[in-house]
Amino acid sequence: MPAPTSAVPALAGALLLAAGRGERMRPLTDTCPKPLLPVRGRPLMQWPMQALAAGGCRHLAVNTGWLGEQIEDRFGPQPALDAGLVLSISYSREEQDFGYALETLGGIVRALPLLDDVFWVAAGDVFAPDFAFDPAERERFVAGGQLAHLWLVPNPPHHPQGDFGIGPDGLAVNTPTDPAAPRYTFSTIGLYRRELFMPPWCAIAAGNPQGLAQPLAPLLRHAMDNGRISASLHTGRWTDVGTPERLALLNTP
What is the mean pLDDT of residues 32-37? Predict the structure, then answer.
């Protein structure tokens, strides 16, 4: 299979996940990719794009799947962003290369040749307008020894059990459901080292030439169990735009 193609030679400092089918959003997503659905006057995925550019990211990788050509048509290699912000985009075209999306882990490994040694990952279908992709956070992460730093959020009504805990030492914890050890929901926002997506942690070949579709959570839990992932709690606005009702609520004046 061909390697993901890049419109710019520089390695990207972030990956925006935009390949999903958006089954729960149907029929809206039958003709429009979920990340392009409008939220408060912008395509949903433009909100994290704006925030990344405001935080100093100049090169972004975007993985595409269902109706991915619409995303490229809308943004191209150098999208026009608000406030004169500048951003170049490289695309990892999963649907074009394999005929299906690769899930989160498979998609990250597929896009890895486009990415810098340390990079942000965010989802194109999550609305988190208060999150700042702070360069100082990246510098602290680079100076530390963790493989990833995740931002968790208070559990929304549709996910009351949460995903991970945060230990007193700031490490992410693969906790069981236990009232004495609260769990929070993974926001989808994180900082990662390339090392996490290579052996011995990840068994998918570099660039994922076989097109393996695999979820990210098992890899994160394995690294947590080895004390290699830290976490913070984000308390700003956050919505997983997973249903038409949530989308409508965001667009209600």
Answer: 95
H-type alpha helices, the chain: 46-54, 68-75, 94-98, 103-111, 135-143, 217-225, 244-250
* 3-state DSSP assignment of residue 131: coil
b/e 137-170 (16+ beta carbons within 10 angstroms → b): bbeebeeeebbbbbbbbeeeeeeeebbbbbeeee
Q: What pLDDT does 5 receive?
A: 47
Count of CB atoms within 10 A of residue 181's CB? Answer: 12
Token pair of 237, please? 């606005």
Q: Which of 162, 148, 152 is nearest to 229 (CA)?
A: 148
Alpha-carbon gap, residue 50 to 130, rounded angstroms: 12
CA distances from 148 to 28, 47, 63 (A): 34, 23, 20
pTM: 0.92
Q: What does the pLDDT look like over 174-199, one tens digit per residue?
A: 977 556 678 999 999 999 999 999 99
Strand-pairing partners, residue 120, are: 14, 191
**162 forms bridges with which residues in the sheet?**
none
Average pLDDT over residues 212-225: 96
Tokens 């914890």 label which residue?
173
Nearest to 181 by CA among 157, 159, 152, 161: 161
Mean pLDDT of the chain: 92
List of residues 6+ apart from 233 with CB closer than 8 A: 151, 152, 153, 154, 166, 184
Residues paired with 124 in a beta bridge: none
pLDDT at res. 25:
85
| 172-173 and 88-93 strand pairing | unpaired
